[in-house]
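Quick log. Single chain, no ligands specified.
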Amino acid sequence: MDVKLRRVGNSMGIIIPKELLERYALQEGDDLELRAEEHRIVLHISDVAFQRQIQAARNMMEKYRVALKKLAE
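-> predicted structure:
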């Protein structure tokens, strides 16, 4: 997925496409971790955001417990 650097005040930033925001349930204010690895820049979801995603998944599984059980048969 290609993105462009854009000026944000005195810094530079990227726009994260909506598809990725939805896929990883990211919202404004979430903490992300940025790391430099050899010739790469890697962006990771912080543990706080990951824990929120896990809780959302657990809530969904509890809400649809009966349907998921039927599908597993």
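The mean pLDDT is 89.
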